[in-house]
Amino acid sequence: MTAAAAASHGALQPRPPGGLLPGAGLSLAVHVGLVAAIALGVSWQRTAQVEFSAELWSALPEVAAPRTVAPEPTPAPPPPAPTPAPPPPAPTRSAADIALERERAVQREQAEREARLKREREAEAKRAKAAEEAALQRQRELQKQREEERAAKAEEERIEKLRQDNLKRLQAQAGGGSGGPSSTGTAARNAAPSQQYGGILKEHIRTQLKFDITGLPPTLTTVVEIRATASGTVLSRRIVKASGNEAWDNAVLRAIDAASPLPRDKNGTTPGSIEIVFRPVD
Q: Which secondary-structure segment (H or E) carries 118?
């Protein structure tokens, strides 16, 4: 018999006595585990019971369904910005174009210069015309002033001539009817005026004074000698002391002429000769 046949034959043979120890140990372990599992189950069932309470309703309350809100529409995305077109290429200029452009620029400058010179000539002509008109206006004003002065002088000469004629006539009448220059009538007429008469005469003449005294210095003084008849008729007047303002002096003389006949003094007659001092603010 071979070795392999001997081994298979030995495995089929019953085990010898004294070989149950491993099986007994395994069985004991299984029983111990089972007892532990039963003890754990019993102890779990002995834990305290938890109490719960509940309410019974005949019907459940109705809850309104939540309002359905329509979602806002999503805005459409903006259209893409258009892409700018590329700039056109700069045109190329030839030498002839450049020369033509320069010639046109020179022509424009020349035209502007001529227009500016034309405007300056027109402005100068206008200024010359305005100056000529102003000179003519001044000449006309001077001519008018001279004519007015000549007319005023002629009027004064006429009045003076008339006064002299009246004076000669009155002197002739006085010489023929009074018996000579030493008569009592002439003596009474040449008597000195009263103290108040000068102020009365000055106020009477001032009512006839037509002159704008605005701007005249208050110290402007004109002294005039007046000769008159006993009835107040002015025979002559002359400036004893001029003020230096011819217009003011002439205005005083014209006022004396317009004031004839002069007022009479307390004795009922007008003094034959009296000097009056005139100032703008008297």
A: helix 95-177
pTM: 0.37
- The helix (run of H) or strand (run of E) holding residue 143 is helix 95-177
Alpha-carbon distance 245 to 219, whole Å? 12
Does a structural domain hold residue 271?
yes
The whole domain housing 209 covers 193-278
pLDDT of res. 90? 66
Cis peptide bond N-terminal to 66, omega within 30: no
Q: Are residues 158 and 221 in the same domain?
A: no
Place of tokens 């006309």: 140
What domain count does the chain have? Answer: 2
Element housing 238 (H / E): strand 234-241
| CA–CA distance, 94 with 104 (Å, rounded to integer) | 16
Coil, helix or strand at residue 133 = helix
Residues 231 and 173 in one domain: no
- What are 99-136's pLDDT values in tens digits? 888 889 999 999 999 999 999 999 999 999 999 899 88
Same domain, 161 and 209: no
Shared domain for 168 and 199, answered yes or no, is no
